[in-house]
Write the structure tokens for this entry.
Amino acid sequence: MSGYANQATFEPVAAETAPLLQISDLEVGFKTQNGMVPAVRGANLTVYPGQTVAIVGESGSGKSTLAHSIINLLPANGRVLGGSILFRGEEVTEFSKRRMAAVRGSSIGLVPQDPMSNLNPLWRVGYQIKETLQANNIAKGKAADIRVRELLAEAGLPDADERARQFPHEFSGGMLQRSLIAMGLAARPELLVADEPTSALDVTVQHQILNHLDSLTSELGVAVLLITHDLGLAAERAEHLAVMYKGRIVESGAALEILQDPQHPYTKRLVHSAPSLASRRLESAHERSQIAEREAASREVLAETESRDNVLVAENLTKAFPIRGGFGQKSTDFKAVDDVSFALQRGTTMALVGESGSGKSTVAQMALRLLRPTSGRVLFDGEDIAPLAGRDLLGLRRKVQPIFQNPYGTLDPMYSIYRTIEEPLRTHGIGNGKQRRQKIKDLLEKVAMPASTVNRYPNELSGGQRQRIAIARALALDPEVVVCDEAVSALDVLVQDQILNLLNDLQGEFGLSYLFISHDLAVVRQIADEVLVMRNGKLVEAATTDEVFDNPKQDYTRDLLESIPGGNIPLASTG
Amino acid sequence: MPEATTNSRTTRAGQHRYVAPLEETPLQSVDAVSKESDGSSLWKDAFRSLIREPLFIISALLILLIAVVVALPALFTSADPTFCTLDNSLADPRAGHPLGFNQQGCDIYARVIYGARASVMVGAFTTIAVVILGGIVGAIAGFYGGWLDALLSRIIDIFFAIPFILAAIVLLQLFRGSISAWHIVAVLAAFGWTQIARITRGAVISTKNSDFVTASTAVGATPLKNLIRHVLPNSIAPVIVTATVSLGIYIVAEATLSYLGLGLPTSIVSWGADIASAQTLLRTNPEALFFPAAALAVTVLSFIMMGDAVRDALDPKARTR
């Protein structure tokens, strides 16, 4: 590692191979009502044949814009304003539309972000791949049909014959992404641009897909430009790494070097907060020690009766949803949650982990008494919550509050922030106007939002800020249990880290108990004391966080752990 | 696991370690709250984009003018619209009577001015009645769902299947000779509420599953409170758009009924009745027909334009932020 000279001073020396893609001083802007808004500023990037290069950054950092400018797929108001993009030594920005269309697909492939919306639901998957082959003049007619099957098989889909005749809705998310990868590689391009190829998928599926992509591209010698927000994933998959922030590449270099010795403050911040790279539970040392003391004290009191103080207990919880059969057929039951039992200890966090469809959100809904269990019970402070009604139910509502996943749906767009946080207070008739105003001010301070926010409306706030308001609303009633249903999953890494720390601090301050639902084991490791692993509605493993991470008992848990991107990368200790 | 540790080969040209100077991109605190923008809600945003929209400005000015005409017709003319003598039959315009006279010798300008009241009032009250009736039925059907929804939706379908004007003609036949403006409002509303009911139902269904409604339930709000406080305010936008457009349609309906002789009695000045009585003069004295018809067209057009502008402002897809 020799100094941090400006990259622009390097002359591209004729090394063993010429670069496949060479971006220099690239400027991209978007035309808006307020004039040109720069999206990419002075970016330099080089990709060699067969190499995997990753661009890492938060949403809005310009990473997708940079990638899309390579294949000239910028939105209508986007323009390349300066710099050059050389692909195989030819200037891409000067290509005619026809020339560009010829390069797209055949020389540069694209794997888009959201597999669910990138295939036309009206056409069979096989036909859509065939379209790619024909558009690039690779094969026609019968030959194309055969090639489609080969590609699908190569993409790791068994029964390729049958699959080709199916429609996109018959595929799972992972299978769709596999077909899109097959399409991206159909014409054997030299460069594959993969724009967040697995962000919409479950961790285990993500792991499989990335492995598959890895082996395919190295077999075919295809260079990959991987766009991702996940530093761990980037470091694990790529040789060379570029970190983007506010339209600029702030740091680039060998992936491992950057991870182990970040230089730019932004990179340091990213490395520091990436959940996949942190290995321990967050500690707000002071507060947590206080809790421990308090707990010890209360434990002595309770010593005769019980060794732990469980605030929320689930006993053999089962929820079945009827699935309506066809005409004249009997409806069948689908067990979303099957015989789940757990006990949440006061002042601690219990994480409920599983893939989508594992039934973890249904458990949350039952714990909140938004759904009634088919059988089994939920006990709050030793009392069954199912029969509660009227005043008693209102009492329970006060003690158990939710925080939801989607920051854009969780706040009523018609309500100002003041009214949003006031609503629980008003529903429960707490305080007069003046006291409420004070309480709302306090709550905003707790979630680190300026007091001036009260007059704002949700659409003026970012996702993380909305989630902080949602937390303030949940805390307005001084609850004992907060159910976080994927509360940080939709957020950027840095914001996610910030919210996790906030939740942790609040736990320390108020002795809150969290039921923390997440698909992301890396996040769970940071916040949870105990972990429950769910699969297909059933509980497969339950233990303390350390035990689950250090010594998983079940294969499924091991699979989940394996799938944490970048989990195995050795990391120099970060401050 | 793929090895991440094998890339220790020598760096190639263009891939040397590079760190941007800090001054280029000064680090901001994570997720900082921007201080510049002032409070804005959906409605404030919509209003802001509306006042820059020529379509809205024109239609708003026209509607304002129509409102003044309806409220204070005497401001615009001193002539009496019901003072008609055959001496003046089809007389040319003269001082104080800028548009001349119709066949009965009534001042056309005065009748156009005074006719606005009947048309606009029928349109406005019908719209209010339709929004209340259709809104309530649609909201209940959408929010509570289940058998109630099935029942109400079928009732909506049945009313929807009845031709609107035809039903009004048949019903108004019953009151022939003693028809008041309220009869017309009641009959138009009775057959016009289904469209609003359908739109409200759809909007309520798409809003009721939002997280913020669930959050409100978890706070302890009852379903009815949820419906009134969260679901309805978030479903009202498409209803307002439809209501504005249909206000124009009801004015046309009133004119149609008056034209057919099933509208307001001749003692009340109305555009529809004037158009009906002037139709035979189309070839010889078209102005007797033209002016009430033009007034009707401009009124209807301004409400429809207003509806269009409001829809554009409220539709988040059409808006660019």
